[in-house]
Amino acid sequence: MEFQAWFQCISGCEGHHSLSEVIYACPQCGSLLEVAHDLESLRQKRPDEWKQLFDGRKHRNVWPYGSGVWGKKEWVCPAIKNENVVSMYEGESNLFWAERLGKKLGIPELWIKLCGNSHTGSFKDLGMTVLVSVVKDMIQKGKDIRAVACASTGDTSAALAAYAAAAGIPAIVFLPKDKVSHEQLIQPLSNGALVFSLETDFDGCMNVVREVTKKKSIYLANSMNSLRIEGQKTVSIEIAQQFDWTVPDVVVIPGGNLGNISAIGKGFLMMEDLGLINKRPRLVCAQSAKANPLYLSYQNGFNTFQPVKAKATLASAIQIGNPVSYQKAVKILKQFNGIVEQATEDELGDACAQADRTGMFTCPHTGVALAALIKLVCREEIKPTDKIVIISTAHGLKFSDFKINFHESRLPEVVPKFPNLPIPVAPDVDQVLKTIDKKLERYTEWIKKQ
Prior knowledge:
Elements lengths: L4 E5 L23 E5 L1 H4 L4 H11 L15 H4 L18 E3 L1 H7 L4 E5 L9 H17 L6 E5 L3 H13 L3 E6 L5 H9 L3 E5 L3 H11 L5 E3 L6 H6 L1 H9 L7 E5 L4 H15 L8 E7 L4 H7 L26 H10 L3 E5 L1 H12 L7 H15 L9 E5 L7 H8 L21 H21 L1
Parallel strand pairs: 4-12, 5-6, 5-8, 6-7, 9-10, 9-12, 10-11
Antiparallel strand pairs: 1-2, 3-4
Helix pairs in contact: 5-6, 6-7, 10-11, 11-13, 14-15
């Protein structure tokens, strides 16, 4: 069965563009493009047939279908040759029932989609496998592409560098100087990318990469390239699949450049269009209060949008003041009865620590999502009885300085309620036992108060 996909304008301008064309915006109106699929041909399979196909590929080793992205190849990028797929078998990440944290927060059905349990430690792998695969396919067909390039706050650069290295394609990365963690910086360096450290913020890096990629031989890998969205939308399909093809009531997503909330909404809409689900979740976009242009626009009903100068935030990956996917995000939020909430530095730090005390190891962006959820439940905008999924976008190990500085009370604007430091004690068993008794007594009292 032959399936087709193409680029088209999100504002409705006429015209289709091949996925192998080097194009990022509508040539008529300048709006972003989106990947559209021939839904009529996809409907030739019944919903139960799609479910059976996707379930049968899960965690298998027939190339490339064991990947959480390429297991849905017909819905993602159907025309690409399998031999040109560049995959680390990304996706299929754990949907973790945060039972103890949920009980502490009064939310019995709290689930965390651990997208950071991926090859480079973030959800960005899901989109980058698609983009780099398409580039490899284009090069094989004779397209003159010398390199792929991105601006990044850390995780995008890691994913691009890894997948480009696997494909044997040069990668160029623009990072804001001293604004990404050491763990994030070392990833593209180790994978051999050409890394530029610019004295600016992400928005400034984005301006540079836009200019650089005007040369069509350098291919743009940021999320304004909607190939990325096709991979990231598989998170929604995985969530439904992991709930036996049912849908949660609420999904909370940290938002910076706003490609991910667009992607997750798109995944749910596609399942609905093809009859695999019969309801939509409510979507929540959570922003840092230091970089909150979508939140400010939401406050006036999305009637106006004004970019902001993003301030330094612990949630560095979403420190973006002029998100390129704003239009896409608003369109999705309106279709999903969406909410936008923000979190302060103290709120996100506290939320991370609460989660970690129940066995998790959260990145600061997941902390933003958790903090936003707590506020919405307290205000009764979301019911605590809802089945709620938090999208955890990156692994906490990429932000060790954030963790250490929290426990050492060295984070600006954060008053840690849950600090925990090593205990200096002499190598004397009696002294160790006395300290254990004393600390366990305090810990038991603290637990009872929670």
